[in-house]
Design a protein that fits this description.
This protein has 435 residues and is of the alpha+beta class. The longest helix has 18 residues.
Length: 435
C-alpha cells in the first residue's frame, strides 16, 4: 500500500514505495535544490530540457500561474529516472481562442457551430497536472534508465506516481496530462490507454532533417520555385541587420523583447502559457552558448527576434516576436525560419525542431509533420466517458496544405491531427529510454 497522500505544500522529499515489496519507488521534490544530486544522476545526458541548467532558468522565471515539481524514481538506492511536473490553471475561453477571428465567417450553420464551441469552452476550467513542459514541443517530460527500469515497469511506475500526485496536491486537479508521447512508443501508449488516458493531438510538430553539408547544398536541393521564393525573401530582408544578442543586450532590450513576443502571442489561436518577461534573460544566463537570441534591426530599432536552443544534435526553435508591419514588409517570419535552417547546418545539427503552429509556411522550408499525441485523464469518471467526443468537438486542428520544396522528395502525408492508433506503430524497443 502507498503511504498517505499529503497536500502539495507538504509533499516534500519523502520516498513513497510502489509497492513496498519491490525496490522501485519515487520521490517528489518541490525544487531542483531539494532534488539535489539525485536529479543530476538520473537525468538523461543528451536532453538539455531535463538538465539542471535549463530547469534552473525555468525556476528563475516561470510563466505566471505555473508551478513546478520534480519526481525522481529509484531502483533500490540508485536514481534511475526523472519526470518534470507542472501545475497550471486551464480556462477554456481564455486559452482556446482560435474561433474568435472566425465568428463572422461562414454561413449561419457554421456560425452557430462556432458559437456552440465557445459556450462549451467557457464551461471548461480547472487545475491541471502536466507531465512534460508546456513551453516546449516534444518528449521532454520524463526519462528512465533501461539498465535499472525496463520500459514496461517504468511506465507503470510513472502512471502510479502521477495518480498519487493528482490525488495528493492542493488544490485537487481536474485532469492529468502527459504531453507529447511519440506514437512509436507502444508500451507507453498502451499503458496510458489502459489507465484511461485519452489520446489527442492539437497540431503536429514540424521538423527538418539536415543532411546538408552547407547552406548552398540546402538551397541547391530545392526545386526552382522554392529556391526563387527563398532568394526573394532574402532580398526583402536585405535592409535589416541580423545580430546575436549578448547577455547585456538582452537585459537592456528586455521590455521591448517581451512586447514583441506579446504582439505575436496574443494573436495565437491556442497557447498553453505566457512566458515571463525575464525568461529569455534567464535562458542566456543558465544555458550560455547553447542559447541563441537573434535580433533583427532596422537601423537602430529592434523590430523582431527569434530564439533557438541547441539540444545535443538538434536545434530547437523557441519563442519569437516581431512587429507586424516589419513582418509584412520584410517577410520577417519566413526569414527567421530560413535563419534557423542556416544556423542548424552551420552548427552541425542533425535536424531543426520548429514546433507546432504555422504548419504550411514551415513545410515550405522543408519541415515535415510529426504527430505527437497528448494523453489526458480526467479525474471525474463521469466526464472521462465523454472526454474523446469533447476533444473532437473542441479540437483546434485545421486543414493545411503541406508543401514539398525539395527535388525528388517523396511526398509524405501530414498525418492525423487527432488521436493515436495504439499498437499500430513501430516497436517501442527502438526507443528504450522513454522521453
Amino acid at each position: 500500500m502507498l503511504t498517505d497522500l499529503c497536500p502539495f505544500t507538504r509533499l516534500q522529499a519523502d520516498r513513497v514505495a510502489v509497492p513496498l515489496d519491490t525496490r522501485d519507488r519515487f520521490a517528489f521534490f518541490p525544487s531542483l535544490q531539494a532534488a539535489s544530486v539525485d536529479w543530476d544522476a538520473a537525468a538523461p545526458p543528451d536532453d538539455v530540457f531535463l538538465s539542471r541548467a535549463y530547469l534552473a532558468a525555468l525556476e528563475d522565471s516561470p510563466p505566471p500561474g505555473l508551478r513546478l515539481g520534480y519526481l525522481v524514481f529509484y531502483h533500490g538506492d540508485v536514481p534511475a529516472g526523472v519526470a518534470l511536473l507542472q501545475w497550471m490553471r486551464f480556462e477554456g475561453r481564455a486559452q482556446l481562442r482560435y474561433w474568435e477571428d472566425k465568428a463572422s465567417n461562414g454561413n449561419l450553420g457554421a456560425r452557430l457551430w462556432t458559437q456552440g464551441r465557445r459556450v462549451v469552452a467557457s464551461c471548461i476550467s480547472g487545475d491541471v497536472l502536466v507531465c512534460g513542459n508546456l513551453l516546449m514541443t516534444g518528449g521532454h517530460g520524463f526519462y528512465f534508465s533501461p539498465q535499472y527500469l525496463p520500459l514496461e515497469r517504468a511506465t507503470a511506475l510513472l502512471i502510479r506516481a502521477l495518480e498519487v500526485m493528482a490525488q495528493g496536491t492542493y488544490p485537487r486537479v481536474s485532469a492529468t496530462l502527459v504531453k507529447d508521447v511519440h506514437p512509436a512508443c507502444n508500451t507507453e501508449c498502451q499503458s496510458l490507454a489502459q489507465a484511461q488516458y485519452t489520446a489527442f493531438s492539437i497540431q503536429p510538430n514540424m521538423t527538418l532533417a539536415l543532411p546538408y553539408r552547407s547552406w548552398e547544398d540546402y538551397l541547391a536541393a530545392m526545386v526552382t520555385k522554392y529556391r526563387t521564393r527563398a532568394k526573394r525573401a532574402f532580398k526583402k530582408a536585405a535592409g535589416l541587420e541580423r545580430r546575436r544578442l549578448t547577455l547585456l543586450e538582452i537585459q537592456q532590450a528586455q521590455p521591448l523583447l517581451h512586447a514583441l513576443y506579446t504582439s505575436v502571442a496574443q494573436h495565437s489561436g491556442f497557447h498553453w502559457v505566457t512566458i515571463n518577461e525575464t525568461y529569455l534573460l534567464a535562458l542566456q544566463r543558465h544555458l550560455g552558448e547553447r542559447f541563441h537570441l537573434i535580433g533583427w534591426y532596422r537601423g537602430n530599432q529592434l523590430v523582431g527576434f527569434h530564439t533557438a536552443i541547441e539540444n545535443n544534435t538538434e536545434l530547437e526553435a523557441h519563442f519569437l516576436g516581431y512587429e507586424e508591419a516589419a513582418n509584412t514588409t520584410h517577410q520577417l517570419y519566413l526569414n527567421m525560419l530560413y535563419d534557423l535552417v542556416r544556423m542548424g547546418i552551420e552548427r552541425g545539427c542533425s535536424r531543426v525542431v520548429f514546433g507546432r503552429t504555422a504548419l504550411e509556411i514551415k513545410s515550405s522550408v522543408g519541415a515535415q509533420p510529426q504527430d505527437l499525441p497528448i494523453y489526458l485523464r480526467l479525474q471525474s469518471p463521469l466526464w472521462r466517458r465523454f472526454c474523446y467526443p469533447l476533444l473532437r468537438y473542441l479540437n483546434p486542428a485545421e486543414p493545411w496544405v503541406p508543401r514539398h520544396p525539395f527535388k525528388n522528395a517523396q511526398l509524405q502525408p501530414c498525418g492525423q491531427l487527432l488521436g493515436c492508433e495504439v499498437g499500430a506503430t513501430a516497436d517501442a524497443g527502438s526507443r528504450p529510454r522513454g522521453h
